[in-house]
Amino acid sequence: MIRxxxxxxxxxxxxxxxxxxxxxxxxxMGSPMAVARRLAGRQATEDLVLRIYHNLGLDExxxxxxxxxxxxxxxxxxxxxxxxxVPVTTVLKQAAPITLSLAVGSAVLWxxxxxxxxxxxxxxARTFSDxxxxxxxxxxxxxxxxxxxxxxxxxxxxxxxxxxxTDYVGITQSxxxxxxxxxxxxxxxxxxxxxxxxxxxxxxxxxxxGEDYIRTARSKGLSEGRVIFRHALxxxxxxxxxxxxxxxxxxxxxAIITETVFGLPGLGWEAVHAIDNQDLPLIxxxxxxxxxAVVVMNIIVDxxxxxxxxxxxxx
Amino acid sequence: MTQGINDSLVAGGEPGIEEELPQVPGKKxxxxxxxxxxxxxxxxxxxxxxxxxxxxxxxVMAIAAPVFGLITGHGPNHQYRDPGALSAAGLPxxxxxxxxxxxxxxxxxxxxRVAYGARVSLVVGLGATAVTVVLGVLVGLVTGYFRGxxxxxxxxxIDVVLAIPYLLFAISLASVVGHVxxxxxxxxIGGFGWASVGRxxxxxxxxxxxxxxxxxxxxxxxxxxxxxxxxxxxNIIAPAIVxxxxxxxxxxxAEAALSYLGIGIQPPTADWGxxxxxxxxxxxxxxxxxxxxxxxxALVITTLAFNIxxxxxxxxxxxxxxxxxxx
Lengths: 315, 327
Fold this sequence. Notes:
The complex is a heterodimer. By secondary structure, chain A is mainly alpha-helical. Chain A has helices at 2-29, 33-40, 46-55, 62-74, 88-123, 128-141, 145-159, 175-209, 212-219, 224-252, 256-262, 267-276, 280-308. The mean pLDDT of chain A is 86. Chain B has helices at 34-43, 46-63, 65-72, 110-146, 148-163, 166-177, 182-208, 212-219, 224-232, 237-260, 272-283, 289-317. By secondary structure, chain B is an all-alpha fold. The interface between A and B is large, with 62 and 50 residues.
């Protein structure tokens, strides 16, 4: 177990290292001078632009800049936003709760909707309700986030005017407004993901229900509910857990499109703007969070396997 | 000859389990390849066949987009400024006899633009999928077959690509490239998509390379590359085809998403994602439903058809996986 953790964490560190190197290379493939030019303003002399360029340290060799970055990172410092001068960690601390609110809320919704309907569908396999659910799932699965999100805004915020469509209200500011402002984004993400989870848990349940140990459980005289929830669901959840780990990780890295549709200034929204402005420290900060989320979730998922399925041994 | 691999391709299951094809006793046994068998199964799948024709219809619409322009007399980028196309306040005009799908905020004909938009969607969707699968299969073959240092290195690369938030990098790349056209988008989408395909193909190759016939080929003195392309490649054609069909809708949506974010195909070229992004101005106030509805539906119908077809193709290659629409 400990050897497994150490090995995976080390691998994760290597991956993170390569990801940040990739960003640096990508940034310097573009035109870092444009950053200095934008900061200097329209009327600036070439001299001023060069001075800013120098002050930002952008004229140093790439490996040196990357070295500085790693050194600061080891001290918990991600540098400063090129434009506002605010520490990147501060920007991230403001954006992260928004993305987290979005991710956690929709994840709870889609897990409940998706898995319960999936189990129901598998127990009622081949009936009309199973087919209707599967067809409905396929429709939502095929609807891009921005189409569903905008359609929901059109109906609930534009036409019916029962929900706000944009802006974010902090949970500490007003829990009720926080909730109201997140209902549409939550459902947008949840309906689409629930479709994936319905299909996943349905087919996984059908596989498990066909296994011998389920027949054994039934012939022991266990109640159907006990067979389904205690014996079948537990091992049927393995693929669901994998998918959940990936999805949560991707969401924490920034639900770029959802945040753009609903104007939520979370990590994804910040990232798009940072890239637009070539704000390297901020871009790197967000990508580190995003990549770390993927790496950590992968480890957690592998550990959960062992909990869910006693046959799995970690090594 | 082709070996029958009917491994569970996508819907879980361990690779490497062989399944005997059912043979009807008494009949003369024909040597039919898994490809032929799968195609025959696919043709019996009603939902998949309907989806196939829907996709053909969309393709015809894309090819015949200028015909839509000729019939209506409206160019895809022509901005009509009269009251029949744009209200006095500059609002889009609702669907009418002249503009069947209404107009957008520039007074352009949405019907004609939706037809032209299908071109970008299909070209990028097909192109990006092709790049994704070809790259993924090549990487999967090489890493799975050679193992050792090549495998370790490429496996790390796959990890990195998978750990990278795809949209973030796509946006960064697009901003570095500057001038974005269809080819650039195809390469961006394909450049990130291959990793997951590569990982799965690698798994298949690892199990195939231990089979007896590969052993036999090796003992006959076949070179590594001959084994890879002559003995192993034909056996991963099936998963490659399944992945291609399942990836098509993903690529179509990825293209639309990039355009929606304003970093895909540049205006004024008609593009569904871009039209939807234009409609965003009006959704808050609940007006001009047609501006969102028609490009949105075009996109949903396309991805839905590709998804149903993809499910059908997967089921056809893997008869054990449970069917979407049971007969």
